[in-house]
């Protein structure tokens, strides 16, 4: 289904499961008894992208696209470490060197033959600063992911939706089959993974149910999905349609909580969604929040101050804790590479945060 078979991944979602899930309402869900977030810096390696999703203001056309230098990466990571961040979030355009010769030429001047080879260097810079890399470079082949797997604590890609939507139309389009294959590859490589759905880009309620069930199916095979993001699309200069209304986002969040097993966190981004109105729908995580950098994908939507998140948690009567980009169970169950384990054991911001989490659990 969903064209995933073209990429060697077989997924079948029974119609009866979709029928059951679309009927779910928030009343079927218990509110979470804990909330978490990660403190991060956003490192937008490049704004060049092979795709042109119509909701996205992040990508720049050839000629205007940026590529951060190693010094710029280092500056951002050092500022992050100084502010107590534990995560370097590498999110950027999909396969930029595929389409932009200037990106390719610049990379080659710096001694790299691909953006993934450069991402590896970027992750190493982050690790030197005591931060844990979490990379979301979009779709990845097995070969690309293998090149950076041991220098990432966790990775991610939004499934967005299993539906063929116009927002992904045009000659260079995101393909649900390829995204499902990326999630499956992460599972095969034993990489703790973040995925999710983008809500309001032309998909139906049934499409949302199918998307959530497809993620569940892949998690059942590999056990690697740590969290799923239920992300409402938001307006910007390229996307003029409304965000989904509150009732829709509440229903979809509850559907996510019912579809996915309890070990998977349900993340709601507090700069894009009315998180205080979603806590009774199963949200238990606010994702990466930055005291230092913007959400470069949605720069018009500022992060709330940490104090505001604490107030929201207090009003709901649940504790709020700061986690690492990789969720604790993957650390304790030894999913991580020696490089990442060493970074967590070292005396940097990530290591100190992890030990604080362990002390709390004692
Ligand atoms: O600031 C953002 N962080 C985004 N993040 C970061 C995320 O909130 C955290 O990095 C993870 O929760 C790990 O701590 C993503 C991570 C992924 O793996 C996949 C998609 C996203 C999407 C966003 C996003 O739109 N904006
Ligand atoms: C990193 C993730 O950011 C999301 N993304 C891209 N553009 C928007 C928007 N206008 N609103 C909300 N999320 C968006 C996509 O889901 C992408 O995968
Ligand atoms: C800036 S969008 C996030 C990474 C990638 N381009 C994707 O869409 O999945
Ligand atoms: S959402 Fe990601 S893949 Fe789509 S255009 Fe933006 S940067 Fe490219």
Automatic annotation (TrEMBL):
Known EC number: 4.3.1.32
Iron recorded as keyword: yes
Record's keyword terms, sorted: 4Fe-4S, Iron, Iron-sulfur, Lyase, Metal-binding, S-adenosyl-L-methionine
Binding site for [4Fe-4S] cluster: 49, 53, 56
Source organism, top-level taxon: Archaea
Pathway in which the depicted protein is active: Cofactor biosynthesis; coenzyme F0 biosynthesis
Database matches in Gene3D superfamilies: Aldolase class I
Family: Belongs to the radical SAM superfamily. CofG family.
Record's protein name: 7,8-didemethyl-8-hydroxy-5-deazariboflavin synthase
């Amino acid at each position: 289904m969903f064209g995933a078979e073209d990429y060697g991944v077989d997924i079948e979602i029974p119609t009866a499961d979709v029928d059951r899930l679309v009927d779910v309402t928030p009343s079927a869900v218990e509110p979470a008894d804990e909330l978490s977030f990660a403190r991060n810096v956003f490192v937008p390696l490049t704004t060049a992208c092979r795709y042109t999703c119509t909701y996205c203001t992040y990508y720049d056309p050839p000629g205007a696209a940026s590529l951060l230098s190693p010094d710029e990466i280092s500056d951002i990571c050092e500022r992050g470490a100084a502010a107590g961040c534990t995560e370097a979030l590498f999110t950027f355009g999909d396969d930029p060197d595929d389409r932009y010769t200037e990106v390719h030429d610049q990379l080659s001047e710096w001694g790299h033959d691909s953006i993934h080879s450069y991402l590896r260097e970027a992750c190493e810079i982050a690790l030197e600063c005591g931060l844990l890399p979490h990379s979301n470079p979009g779709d990845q082949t097995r070969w690309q992911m293998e090149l950076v797997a041991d220098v990432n604590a966790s990775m991610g890609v939004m499934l967005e939706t299993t539906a063929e939507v116009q927002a992904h139309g045009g000659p260079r389009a995101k393909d649900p089959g390829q995204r499902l294959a990326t999630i499956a590859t992460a599972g095969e490589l034993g990489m703790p993974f973040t995925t999710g759905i983008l809500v309001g880009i032309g998909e139906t309620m049934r499409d949302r149910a199918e998307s959530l069930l497809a993620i569940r199916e892949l998690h059942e095979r590999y056990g690697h999905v740590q969290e799923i993001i239920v992300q409402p699309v938001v307006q910007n200069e390229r996307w003029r349609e409304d965000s989904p209304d509150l009732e829709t986002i509440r229903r979809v969040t509850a559907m996510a909580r019912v579809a996915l097993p309890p070990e998977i966190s349900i993340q709601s981004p507090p700069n894009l969604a009315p998180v205080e109105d979603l806590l009774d729908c199963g949200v238990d995580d606010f994702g990466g929040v930055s005291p230092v950098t913007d959400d470069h994908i949605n720069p018009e939507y500022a992060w709330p101050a940490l104090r505001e998140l604490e107030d929201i948690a207090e009003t709901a009567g649940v504790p709020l804790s700061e986690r690492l980009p990789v969720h604790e169970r993957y650390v304790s169950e030894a999913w991580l590479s020696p490089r990442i384990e060493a970074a967590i054991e070292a005396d940097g911001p990530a290591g100190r945060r992890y030990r604080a989490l362990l002390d709390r659990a004692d």
